[in-house]
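Appendix B, record 7
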Amino acid sequence: MPDRPNPNIWYEAARQIQSELEGDIWGISVELIEEKLYTGMYCFPVESTHTIRPKWLSIAEYILSHCDTRDWACLECWRYGTDRVTERNPVTVIVEVNKTHTNPSIKSARDIHEVLVFFNESGVDVLFQTNAKWPL
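Structure tokens (predicted):
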């Protein structure tokens, strides 16, 4: 969100964008981020030149068909980390699980790592986040 004396303009823009997209993309969330205030985690798309990109759909299908996904809400692949420079953050498979999940994530993380090794992507990280709302 750029430095503006009236942030309400940006809030209204975010609300309008969300209302436009809600009909087509179920559960979408539009956020405003002020980079100067943000010192947390960054999430970037994986560049098209990375080896996982052409394999991602096959990897995701394999994971979804071979892992216990009962409590999963989302499966994605991003560069995720604390650096503002995209390439300095590791490529990470991110699994969002329902807040009420009961399955231990460690077994699923190991299973995903095995899938990544099978697809020659052993350097890719795996992260489980407990903050999702909807089942996969």
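Remarks on this record: The radius of gyration is 17 Å. The mean pLDDT is 85.
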